[in-house]
Amino acid sequence: MTAAVAELSLLPPGPLDEWLPARLESILAAATARVVLIDAAGAPPDAALSAACLRSLLLFELPVVFAFEGALAGGLAEIALAADIRVCSESASLRGPLASSARVRTLADEATSLALFLGREVLGADALLAAGLVSSLVPAGQSLAEGRRVAAVIASRGPIATRLGKEAIWRGLPQPIDQALRFETDLTLLLQTTKDRAEGVRAFLEKRAPIFTGE
Question: Which residue, 189, 146, 187, 194, is CA-closest to 164?
Answer without folding.
Answer: 187
